[in-house]
Structure formats: C-alpha cells, structure tokens
Amino acid sequence: MKHLKGSLLLLLIMMSCIFWGNRDVKAAEPDFFKEYSSEDSYMDEEYNFRLKHKCRLTIYMKGEEVDYDDYDDYDDYGSMYVTIDDGDFLNTFFEKYMDLKDSYQKTITLKAGKYSLYVDSDGPYYISLSGQYYPELSSKDFTLEEGKTKTLKVNGTSSKVKWSSSKKSVATVSNEGVVKAKKAGKAVITAKCGEYSLKCKVTVKKKPVSYKVVAKKLKTFAKKNKNYKFNTIDAGNKCRLYGYGVYDYTSESVMYGEGYGLTAVYYPYIELVKKGNGKSEIRLRIFGEMYELSLYDSTSLYCSSIQAFTSNRRMKFRMKNTYNRNEYKYSGYYYEGRMKGYAQISSSLYPEKSNIKKFNTMLGQNSLSMKLNSSDGASLKFGIPAANRKNWKKLLKEYNILLKDYI
Q: Is this model's pTM higher than 0.70 or not?
C-alpha cells in the first residue's frame, strides 16, 4: 500500500510537469489587431481598417532580404513606404520610409473611424497593427429636465465602472450609469474604470409649468395692476397680456396743408403659446400700427421696422407684417392706407437673441423716442411719455419673472 501511494504521487508530479511544460502562456489580447503581409516583390497595396473607439495603436513593420544582383541600379535590399490616412488623402496620420532589411515600431493615437493603410514595397513585408482602446463616455455634457433620466455608457473598455455624482441633490447616477435629474442646477458625473477617470457635465433645468398655470398668472397680474389688459386669443392655446398703449398723429394743419396725415400706435405685450409635449413658449413683442390718409397720392403701407432712440442708445427691430390695406375711398375722395405688425424683443425658445436688457435700460431714460417705419418710406416718430415707460418696464419685469420661474 505504501509503495502504491508513492507511485501515484510520482505519476501526479510527472503529469504536472508535462502540463506546465506544454502550457502556452499568452499576454492579454489587444482590443484591435490586424496583420498584413506579402511574399511578392514590387507591391503597391491598399488596406482598410476601422477603429470602434479612440485607440492607442502600435504599428510594427518588417521586411525580408531581396537579392538584386542582376540589377546594378539597386542595393542588396529593397525598401518600402507606408502611410495611414483618412482614406481621402486629406489627412495623413502616419508615414514611414524604410529598408526591407530593417524593422520599425511606433505607437500613435487615432480617433474612432475608418482608415486606409497604403504600402509601396520592393519586396516581401510584414505589418501588424495592434491597439488598446481608450475608455470614452457616450456623452461629455447634456441637459435634462427635472425628473428625466439619461443613460451614460463607457465605450472602449470591459473594465468595471464605478459611478459617482458631484452633487446628488441635482443629479444622481446608478451603478448602471443611469443619470436622474433631481432639481435645477449643475453637477459632474464621474466614471472611474481602471486608471481612467471620465467626467460628464450635467445641467438640470426646471420642469416647465403647464400653459394653464402661466395663463392664470398673466390674468391675475392684469387684475391686480391698472393699465394692463389680459385677452384670450385661442382658449387653452394662446393668450396675451397687453401694456399701456401710446399713439401720435399728424396735426390737422399739416394734413390739409400738405395733403396727407399719419397716425401711429405702439404697445408691448406678452404672448403665451402652448406647444407640444406640455411645453409653452412665452414672447415679448411690440405691436405697431400705422394709418395714412392722402388727398393726392395712392398709399402703399407695409410694415418694415420699429426704432428706439435715446440720447446715447439706438435699437432697431425688424417687423413682421400681419395686416395691410391700401385703397381709394370714393365716398371721401381720398386714399387710405393701413398696416399692422409686431417686432419681437425676446422669446423663451431663443433666449440668446434677446434684446430685453438693452430695451429695459432705454425705458429708464427720459429721452426715449420711437419711430414706426413702412417699407415705402412713410414713418412717424414721437417721444414715449414717462407713464408709458414706467408701465412698459413693469411688463418687462413680469416677463423676466415668467422666464425664470415658469418656463
């Protein structure tokens, strides 16, 4: 029995030696690997490859000896020229000229995309492309509304990812990379994988309040403040809050002396329009209307622009024409023209194009005048009284509150 145990132990040791002696121990396989070779002389080849992600790519090149004894113009070894570009010859990322007797290796970094490898060789060669992908986040920054979610992914790695948020009160992130917006603000989501720490900026916006809530706010404002009017244009879809209007006209003496007369009207208003997905757009506009009578010449009024002037500031707003009519009145033997339109000062959809700050400053200046222009050259300019400027400034203030708190 004792001899049997010894024999079994010896057998196990011998088998272990055979197993470990024949084991092929390999390094970790690269994320990307391609081989190209040719045994022929005078080769001119093009190869195409694609990188899924940003990659640290190692290029290895080696040639073989070629005998040119029959040709006096050649050395004993051939040469090859290799390039890597974007496939359209617009950008070259690698190029190397070398003798086939040598070997060469270089590591470069390339973005995800398609590439072409060109080889111009006098003889046999071997080329390998071996690369490790860089981990990359699927997004580097994005915006979410309160309560919404977005899933982040780390591409280019199989390593375990550890997620974290710089401000959990603004946005949280799960172990699977699902970001959830909590409240308005900014946070940074970090994904750690191996030696890499990847960051994504998240901006959380307030959830839009319903059209009904904002419309009620406008209506309440008009009830509590004099010289403002609320009007429903399309029930449940569009409404407006109007400011105090101002108008001017050509004097009667000029009318009969020169044969024409002009009347112009301005007033600002806030317009609320219901959009899809429960969202609304809020706009600040100036309404403009011009009326012209002419005893001798036909009229051709059509909205062009509204201009604002103070002692040190100028603004010009292009108008959208909404109505115009030019006709001859046989009953009174005169020509009559009329136009209506608006200039947009600001919109919640395009806050970067807002002129509200400068216009609000001009309303605080005593010298403010405005001018309504028709495309045919007719215009009327007059000063804006203090009562109107005060009324309009309050309307602008309410508009800014709505932008901040409701939209």
A: no
